[in-house]
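User: Hi! I have a protein structure encoded as tokens and I'd like to know what sequence might fold into it. I'm fairly new to this, so please keep things simple.
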């Protein structure tokens, strides 16, 4: 006969008291609510996040400063938390001196003092990188010292039916009881074509910004195909250099293009520094490599705006790795970040415009019932910082098993 596992809680999930820290607009919380739990308390330091949370979930969120001395108004059974991650992320540049990094440790201190049966902490994938080892190890040690068995894993949003390449570190801490960390069962990826279809024109969060056909943004977008990006520093079929869009950046002849191609290659292969991924190129080295690189041609490219002088060397003017990235309808999206609505960063798969707030929310897995602020910059920040609700739902189901 199979033995029935005995749960810590013999009552319903709704009676389990869950408290949420750094709740944002409620991505993690929406998943737990959908799984049958009831969030009793939520706190965030941002007023916009709290207002969005209370209007879309339940009015239990409060705008509060959260530090290591934070106290809950009741004894929580479960704590879920998403402390700020900007200083840990590759996109944030690994800011070791970012004061928000300490909030991860503060979260663990709050958990250790509050003594819930279970805690779930979500953060960026890069939290587990070597540069962040000190913070990550300190956090795990704080929980272990308080009597928690901790497991962690880097989870991919695509494994949860989210149409997005988003990888996040999840830490689960259980009081005095070992367990095996959750493992997602990979499923077929959900494509953007299905996620972005059928959005109502009356949706207050779906207001496509269509630029004039003679605008810079529109003319660049015309040249970027699905899966491509505007990029000078890397070659390949998915990189469209500025010199291939003369109507925006200026015309070049074949000799000038040869010089630009040579600079693009040399700046990555002729390295001088121990940091960065490219260096300016000496004119002598360029001339020895490219027969077209005479003084007149180089000066023309500098005058047009394609080259710039750096000391005694030259470099490309636009050295970004990629802008105007065109999403693919038959693929998933890159990570939805706080700048996802900027046309200079991301293009709609089929239309010559940027993404709308509702499109970003759909890609994250939010229901259309959830309304975000009319201020688009604020809305994109809330969505980009959120945990995809479908991922949160599966984690919540697993947490019920642990309880």
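Assistant: Happy to help. Inverse folding works backwards from shape to sequence: for each of the 403 positions I chose a residue that suits the local structure. Here it is:
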């Amino acid at each position: 006969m199979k033995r029935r596992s005995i749960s810590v809680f013999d009552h319903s999930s709704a009676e389990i008291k869950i408290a949420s820290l750094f709740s944002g607009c409620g991505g993690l919380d929406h998943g737990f609510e959908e799984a049958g739990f009831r969030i009793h308390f939520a706190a965030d330091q941002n007023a916009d996040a709290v207002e969005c949370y209370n209007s879309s979930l339940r009015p239990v969120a409060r705008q509060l400063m959260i530090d290591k001395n934070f106290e809950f108004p009741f004894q929580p059974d479960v704590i879920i938390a998403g402390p700020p991650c900007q200083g840990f992320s590759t996109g944030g540049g690994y800011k070791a001196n970012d004061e928000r990094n300490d909030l991860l440790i503060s979260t663990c201190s709050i958990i250790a003092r509050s003594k819930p049966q279970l805690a779930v902490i979500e953060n960026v994938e890069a939290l587990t990188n070597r540069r962040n080892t000190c913070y990550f190890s300190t956090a795990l040690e704080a929980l272990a010292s308080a009597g928690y068995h901790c497991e962690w894993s880097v989870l991919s949003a695509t494994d949860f039916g989210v149409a997005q390449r988003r990888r996040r570190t999840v830490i689960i801490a259980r009081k005095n009881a070992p367990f095996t960390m959750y493992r997602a069962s990979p499923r077929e990826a959900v494509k953007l074509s299905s996620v972005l279809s059928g959005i109502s024109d009356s949706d207050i969060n779906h207001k496509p910004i269509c630029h004039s056909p003679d605008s810079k943004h529109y003319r660049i977008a015309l040249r970027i195909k699905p899966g491509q990006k505007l990029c000078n520093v890397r070659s390949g079929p998915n990189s469209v250099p500025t010199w291939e869009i003369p109507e925006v950046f200026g015309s070049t002849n074949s000799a000038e293009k040869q010089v630009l191609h040579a600079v693009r290659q040399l700046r990555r292969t002729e390295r001088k520094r121990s940091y960065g991924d490219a260096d300016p190129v000496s004119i002598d080295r360029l001339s020895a490599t490219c027969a077209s690189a005479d003084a007149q041609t180089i000066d023309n490219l500098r005058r047009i705006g394609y080259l710039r002088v750096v000391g005694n060397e030259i470099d490309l003017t636009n050295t970004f790795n990629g802008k105007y990235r065109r999403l693919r309808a038959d693929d998933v999206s890159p990570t939805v970040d706080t700048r996802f609505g900027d046309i200079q960063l991301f293009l709609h798969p089929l239309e010559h415009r940027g993404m709308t707030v509702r499109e970003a929310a759909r890609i994250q897995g939010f229901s259309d019932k959830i309304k975000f602020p009319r201020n688009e910059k604020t809305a994109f920040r809330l969505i980009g910082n959120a945990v995809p609700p479908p991922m949160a739902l599966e984690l919540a189901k697993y947490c019920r098993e642990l309880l």
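A useful reference point when you look it over: Residues 232-316 form one domain. Feel free to ask if any position seems puzzling.
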